[in-house]
From TrEMBL:
Annotated signal sequence range: 1-42
UniProt name for this protein: Sugar ABC transporter, binding protein
Gene3D superfamilies assigned to the protein according to its UniProt record, in alphabetical order: Periplasmic binding protein-like II
InterPro entries the UniProt entry points to: Bact_solute-bd_prot1, SBP
SUPFAM superfamilies tied to this protein: Periplasmic binding protein-like II (SSF53850)
Organism in which the protein naturally occurs: Clavibacter michiganensis subsp. michiganensis (strain NCPPB 382)
Length: 452
């Protein structure tokens, strides 16, 4: 089966591509209500007199990484009246949940790293602070389409830390061994999957993780779908659009033909398959090399990354996949000092360059420019153009994605339904329909107007 041919993408100008992430959330009414409901005395709007201690939650740090501590130590050195305390907290979803719980208990940190897709629900809940004025002087230090990830209604709610330009990371040596060219379209990807698995039934082009909600959302966006859109005070949900369903058909075909391996990612089993050359690629983003290198360091030098395959040949448009920002909770003990630290780390030349030491792709211009002189990721030490490819994706091909106020509902329903469908061999299309129905029902229950 060839790759689906989604509906022709609507003409996308640069202006459209730089539309803010959740442009119209405020127009839906919940933003104003939730923020006005917050106690005016709950947040530290002014800098405190004397020494300041800031509690910094991050999930980029694993196992007391000395490189991360060195970054914090550098800031403390530059600002002797400030002490930033580094705290490692869970993973991407765990951090958002912990922040909501901490807010209810009045025990929030002062700065927290959260994925972009979690921002709408945090703003609706009144948990994160509008820091527009605090970051005004740094607006020129981050590209507009990256600020868009934390901006809506012309207000800024976070400072971009890292970004995830979509890329295809693959075992160069093994694709060559199987006589497979690097796929540039998803149709070529399907052909490559068949060729590899036919040559060796124990080997797969990739794994298929039914719980990777963000991957499926990105696939649909690349095909032209818009899962949430807003017009004034009315939301429209397009999770079961024809563009989305075409991508569902594509992956169901590969699963049914056993051309991708159905399994969770980054488990002991998956790690072993990556080490043994049984899984040959991962279509995700620029952060993939650091993950693979952490679980399969002995394979370094055998991998390369390329632009993501395209649904329509010649249309290189892709969304960001993953990435995160620093947010200041409404109940921060000193929001001004917290925003200053977040701004230094993400937008100053020194801070954003230091993020490179954590194998992150920085959101700030200084860090992005530094990649031109940086060594490629340890996983592909000989791929000198790795960062140039990633930067080209950012500059020219990024699709703006609107995450709705109930993305958590969509993720839960979708992951449960897709896991069941992959296990039982039932329709993937039904997964999208069930998620559509659940999201629409939840929006209506919450009080939003929904266009059917």
């Amino acid at each position: 089966m060839s790759a689906p041919r989604p509906h022709a993408r609507r003409t996308a100008s640069k202006a459209r591509r730089r539309r803010p992430l959740v442009l119209a959330l405020a127009a839906a009414g919940a933003l104003t209500l939730s923020l006005s409901a917050c106690s005016a005395g709950a947040s530290g709007d002014a800098a405190a007199d004397g020494p300041v201690t800031l509690d910094f939650w991050t999930y980029s740090v694993k196992g007391n990484d000395p490189k991360a501590q060195a970054i914090v130590d550098r800031y403390n050195e530059l600002n002797p009246d400030v002490t930033v305390k580094l705290s490692e907290v869970g993973g991407t979803a765990d951090t958002s949940s912990k922040l909501l719980a901490a807010d209810r208990a009045d025990e929030t940190p002062d700065i927290v790293q959260v994925e972009y897709r979690a921002l709408p629900s945090l703003v609706v809940a009144g948990v994160v602070k509008d820091i527009t004025d605090d970051v005004a002087d740094a607006k020129g230090d981050v590209a507009d389409n990256i600020w868009d990830l934390t901006t809506f209604d012309d207000r800024v709610y976070g400072v971009p830390q890292d970004i995830g330009p979509a890329m295809f990371t693959y075992r160069k040596d093994l694709l060559e061994q199987y006589g497979v060219e690097v796929p540039t379209t998803w149709a070529e990807y399907a052909d490559a999957a068949e060729k590899i698995h036919t040559a060796d039934p124990t080997v797969y082009i990739s794994s298929f993780d039914p719980g990777e909600f963000q991957f499926f959302a990105a696939q649909a966006a690349q095909a032209g779908a818009e899962w949430w859109t807003n017009d004034g005070d009315t939301w429209k949900v397009g999770i079961d659009s024809e563009e989305s369903l075409a991508t569902a058909d594509f992956w169901q075909d590969l699963v049914e033909r056993d051309l991708v391996k159905v399994e969770a990612l980054v488990t002991p089993e998956w790690n072993a398959e990556i080490n043994d050359g049984k899984v040959l690629s991962w279509a995700a983003a620029s952060w993939v090399p650091s993950v693979i290198n952490a679980v399969a360091p002995d394979t370094a030098g055998k991998w390369e990354s390329a632009p993501l395959p395209q649904w329509t040949e010649g249309d290189a448009s892709v969304p960001f996949i993953g990435g995160s920002a620093y947010f200041v909770p409404e109940k921060s003990s000193d929001s001004e000092a917290a925003a200053k630290f977040a701004t230094w780390l993400s937008t100053s030349d020194e801070g954003s360059k230091l993020l490179l030491t954590l194998d992150l792709y920085p959101g700030g211009n200084g860090g992005r420019e530094a990649t031109a002189e940086s060594s490629p990721p340890a996983l592909m030490p000989d791929q000198a153009d790795f960062y140039q490819i990633a930067d080209q994706v950012i500059e020219d091909t990024t699709i703006p994605v609107t995450w709705g106020p109930n993305v958590n509902v969509a993720q839960t329903v979708f992951n449960d339904a897709m896991n069941a469908a992959a296990l039982n061999g039932t329709s993937f299309r039904d997964v999208y329909t069930a998620t559509q129905d659940a999201v629409v029902a939840d929006l209506k229950k919450t009080g939003y107007s929904v266009k059917e």
